[in-house]
Amino acid sequence: MASQTIGTVTPVEAAHPYDIMLGSMTYGGLSFMGLDLSVKYQMLENMWLTANYSYISKNYYDDIDGKGSFSLNVPQNKGSLSIQYVEPNTAIRSSVRYRYTDGYRVEAGIYRGELKPYGIVDFAISSPLSFMPIRTSVVFSVENVLNHKHIEFVNTGYIERLIKGSFNFSI
Questions:
Q1: Strands (E), 20-110
Q2: Integer CA distances (angstroms), 46 to 81, 86, 93, in order
Q3: pLDDT digit string (tens) for 116-148?
């Protein structure tokens, strides 16, 4: 593994002379290909199926120009599949989505480690508030409905279920 360059800068005028500046190495050229796909299919008059997929041919390099390893800090594969429904009389919208992310190696300065793959299910529902003078809706969503404990970046805590509510308006 390559070493990280660390230098300290302490000008006389510095407000905080003990701060440490971290720098990253500059690498030569990288070669990779990627693909992003998105498909939306209308299953019924008020129901849609949506699929998204992203692929990158190489997300980690063992050695570049003799300077050591390098990670793009992205998964090689990730995607989602969702179903959306709009109730025609009330315009209430609902959706259920499954998201999958491959595991991958992270090397971002002092943050280094392996992320495990994970898949989670999300749910959302929104309703217009027709009695309001401007276009307004109330939204309720649950991310990670099944409460799958996972980490989305190294050196951070576990992410569990997230329940959110909001009022949205357009003027």
A1: 20-22, 34-44, 47-56, 60-61, 70-71, 77-86, 93-101, 104-108
A2: 17, 5, 10
A3: 999 999 999 999 998 877 788 999 999 999 999
